[in-house]
Amino acid sequence: MDRARSALERGDRVPAGSLQPIVADSWQRCRDAGLDPRADPIAKVLPFSDVKRRREAAAPLRQLALAEMRLLHSQIAGSNFIIALADRDGIVLDTISDHEFAQSAAGRAIIPGSGWHENERGTNALGLATLTLKPTAVYGREHYFASHGHLSCMAAPILNCRGEMLGLLDASCAHDARQEHTHALVRMAAAQIENGLVFQESADSFVFAFHPRAEYLGTLSAGLISVSASGDVTSINRSGQALLAGLPALLGSHFDALFEAGFHGALDGLLSGGVIRIRDLTGSGLFMACRQIAQRSNVAELRGPQRAFVPALISKADAPDFVCEDNSISTLLAELADAVSLGMPIHVTGETGTGKELMARHIHKLSQRKGEFVPVNCGAVPEELFISEIFGHEQGAFTNSRMKGAPGLARAAHRGTLFLDEVADIPLSAQTSLLRFLDNMEVRPVGAHKVDKVDVQIVSATNRSIEEMVEQRLFRADLFYRLNAFTVDLPPLTARSDFATIVRNLMEDLAPGLPVTDAAIAALQRRKWPGNIRELRTVLQRALVRRRGEYVDEECFQEPLAASVTLNNCCDECRDSPLNSARCREIRTVHRRTGGNISRTAHDLGLSRTTVYKHVR
Ligand SMILES: Nc1ncnc2c1ncn2[C@@H]1O[C@H](COP(=O)(O)OP(=O)(O)OP(=O)(O)O)[C@@H](O)[C@H]1O
Predict the structure, then answer these.
(1) Class of the CATH domain delimited by 2-187
(2) What ipTM was estimated for this complex?
(3) pLDDT tens digits, one per residue of 398-408
(4) How far apart are the CA of 156 and the centre of ligand 1, in A?
(5) Which of 356, 493, 534 to mutate to test the pocket of ligand 1 (most atoms within 8 A of CB)?
(6) Domain 323-489 annotated CATH 3.50.50.60
């Protein structure tokens, strides 16, 4: 390696045989592309809007991959690693890392949006695996750029059954800390994701596992084949293709072209839930078991008695107890249930009053966690107390410490949910501690030496654009990426297709049994709703006062515009107090001018963040 490296850095021919051929070829390509191995790599990072689009495009893959990444992380945790998921173009979408690695130069380079193409970053595992579609490891000084020489990276492509690349999984670590088995773990995780995709893409198909040995049916070396209700092959994993080598184990082929028993012959035994013996058409004996029954297939027609079907995506128990008939939300809810079951941090965005807190409580309910739902209003906690509020403090930890000591909200949320409301207002000084907590779920109260591990579902919410704050360096990008593994974006009230249902639902709550006319709903729908559902609720309350008959009609909403604007400019508490309303209006005006930034409003007006928060919430 020493000879190869000095030849490379001198610009001489690299001695033959001094490198594995795949690395030697890559060095040559980098040289041809004019990259200088002693210079810094070209470190392009896409803006978050692009990452978001790519994450959406890769949503089914991410859903499976994030679960595998967490598992992989738990297998290699503490060994100073980062695990990354990249999309088909080699752009990193998500990372999970040991805290120490995240702080290193390499950890700060492998971030969502970073691309690892060979022609920019030189020889590296992600770049090579993107080119070759093969699992690849690049150790230490095999990296083209000398500045990457302390890293070891292992990447494995994730392919669909047509052999097309969907994404890549990568594990990188300091070269001294590398462990031989990690490469195998990364390959296994990629294979597990590929298998998950067979199920995910084949909801309308049967999925059968097969292997020459029955005890291997549940392992990664088992073949998985998905077959439509008429016996056509809809997907087959890599192990399946290898086990059926020599046969047309391809998409669009038919079960009968692969196995002697034929589809209808095999199905009866398979649907009985047992393991059957079967021969492929080359005569090799195999064991086969059914892993999934096709949804919507009429199994009764295919065989005797009716079998259980795969349940619908949202069960009744999982349905929220607030209105969400709007398409964009109901689609999200199906995915949300999966994200919650994987324990992914969920980030809820939406204008004020769109129902973010309600959604956070729903997430807690979905998680079926026995612990508490613990809301923290990050905008209302004074900056200097933030860390001790979240992580607690020991008795006497502060000079003027009131207190006996407090466990902190993160511990109070153990086995429950920590809801970080107004998360954009977390002081920069506390963001590092929160990031570390998200990585290791460890709590160390201020002044304490002991560390406790907790198990907490994280939900955060904001009505501000954290993307912009990240660009302005007001919010840590790595913290943002950790918080928003899954985002629920609540539409403003004016964009909701279930507006009428929301009105009727609120009316039922405020005055059960009292009808509201369609004309009244139409009149409401024509208005602007800067305060969204919260404002609608207040307007309905006021209309009830004005109601004359046994129903609410459009006349109940004809309040003078000026009054309504003035009212909207004050918070509920100050509305009836001439003394407070002017001050309140000023706070709310500055708050709007600062784009909803509580800290800046507080600073500009010389008030505490808690005071500002009280008037703008
Ligand atoms: N889908 C819904 N159906 C009925 N009521 C709703 C719905 N969503 C929200 N609400 C009501 O609207 C009000 C505001 O909801 P919530 O406090 O959850 O909003 P928010 O987005 O967290 O607001 P903020 O950003 O100001 O904290 C509450 O009274 C809530 O019950």
Answers:
(1) alpha beta
(2) 0.97
(3) 555 555 667 88
(4) 44
(5) 534
(6) no
